Amino acid sequence: MKQQNIYRNNNQALKETLASFKPEQLLYLPIEIGKFNHKTSIVNFFGDVIVKHFEFPNKLHGLDFFLNKLKAAVDSTGAKKIFIGCESTGHYHLNLVHHLKQLNLPVEIINPRDSKKENPNKNAKTDPIDLNAIARVLIANKGGRQVVPEGVYYNLQRATRTRRKFIKRRTSSQNIITGLVDRIFPGLWDKDKTIFSNNWGKASLLLLERFPHPDKIIQLGQKRLASFFRKNNTKLGDETAAKVIAAAKDALTKPISELNMDIFALKSHIRCLHLYESTINELEQEIACLLIQTPGTYLLSVDGISDTFAAEFTAEVGDVNRFAYANQIISFAGTCPRIFQSAEYNAGGLPISGRGSKFLRSSLNQIALSLNAWCEPFHLYYTDKSIQKADKPGIARVATGNKFVKLAFALMKHEQLYRPKGIIPDNYYSVAFNKITRKLAKFDFSSINPNCNFLLKIKKQIEGDTKI
């Protein structure tokens, strides 16, 4: 019978440590991270302070000072095993952790919630108190540990998160531009009498940059406006020019002299919009190049999973081999339901835990909606859950997202293309590969090392009739 244990992961790390080393041979270094200076102390397994808390700057000479203190403590105690831990503090801890890992020093990144639980005085917070709390978490091996992505996964995570920020800024600029157009040239973007097939297209924005006010349009005239469209290669002509002139004559607007600053703001935001568009396109190229260097490429074989969704999921999960099973990813995303049970009472229908990666949780929400729209098996599952929980529509999205996590885990772990249940045609994998290449058709992968290119790997698997 398997031995049960009350601690996380059977507290295997602590068991192995105590089996290999005596308690007095262990040293623990909790670090309180700061922007310009860090603080630390050195304690042993029993909590005895070997070196009182001291401060060192966030610079190379500060790291040298820290290492000298550590070496002196090791020499004086005869320690054989060292544990270093710090709280996850946004980006402030990343550089220090990187350099410590380069020196082959073990660094554990602790969730601040876990260290807060070890503070006996909830009404006090000082650096020494925080150091003691971090040390208790390290010694008892409590709580979870954050894994900092490295290599291609780190770059992919930074690229996808940066793209998301620029998408939000682009949307914000578009909303501002819409408000300014309604103020300066009402009726130009009328939803019932559309003039441009795409209000954010080249012709519409070019017109607003050069002739934003109805009076300027009327002065220009239909012939010169049509010539302006043709000259700038907008594929528009007399018909569109006539519609714009008609809208300008019927516009209920203020005199141009009273809208000078609004016109200036409009042109400024259009310039910002062009910059955001250019930046997003560059980021998407980089994201696609990073994605095909990971097993996340296999996710593109699922209908409804675009290069963006596959990249965001892969970026937030990181190396899938660090998870033993798919439910660990669900827990990491915070989309698992809460549990509350006491005696005979067992609460049901509780909300999700919400603890974990908010970025992964947000991506799974969007992925679920896309799968419902484009992937037949997931659409049936989503519909079934929506009917079962008609009073709680959000459950269908969460359940569909969790179902995708289990599928994605299997595809990435075993490096296989998606294969739906039932009978499939002989050329299914070739069709699936063509589907992947169509999704990535607009990107250039000539700079990618062939040995790291999963697209080439999938192609070789199909040509060699190996198991995929």
Task: Write up this protein.
The chain has helices at residues 12-20, 60-77, 94-102, 112-117, 127-140, 152-184, 202-210, 214-220, 222-231, 238-249, 260-291, 307-317, 326-333, 358-374, 376-388, 394-414, 428-439, 454-463, and strands at residues 26-32, 37-44, 49-57, 81-87, 107-110, 145-146, 341-342, 345-346. By secondary structure, it is an alpha/beta fold. The protein has three domains: 8-146, 2-Layer Sandwich (Nucleotidyltransferase, domain 5); 157-284, Helix Hairpins; 293-463, no CATH class. It has a six-stranded mixed β-sheet, sandwiched between helices. The protein is globular.
Architecture blueprint of SSEs:
Blueprint: H1 12-20, E1 26-32, E2 37-44, E3 49-57, H2 60-77, E4 81-87, H3 94-102, E5 107-110, H4 112-117, H5 127-140, E6 145-146, H6 152-184, H7 202-210, H8 214-220, H9 222-231, H10 238-249, H11 260-291, H12 307-317, H13 326-333, E7 341-342, E8 345-346, H14 358-374, H15 376-388, H16 394-414, H17 428-439, H18 454-463
Helix pairs in contact: 6-11, 6-12, 8-10, 9-10, 11-12, 12-14, 13-16, 14-15, 14-16, 15-16, 17-18
Separation of the first and last Cα atoms: 37 Å
Kindly state the mean pLDDT as a whole number? 91
Q: Reading side by side through the largest sheet, how are the strands ordered? A: 3-2-1-4-5-6
**Count of alpha and pi helical runs:** 18
Short characterization:
The chain has 18 helices and eight strands. The chain is α/β, with parallel strands linked by helices.
Features:
single chain, two-stranded antiparallel sheet, 6-stranded mixed sheet, 468 residues, globular, Helix Hairpins, alpha/beta
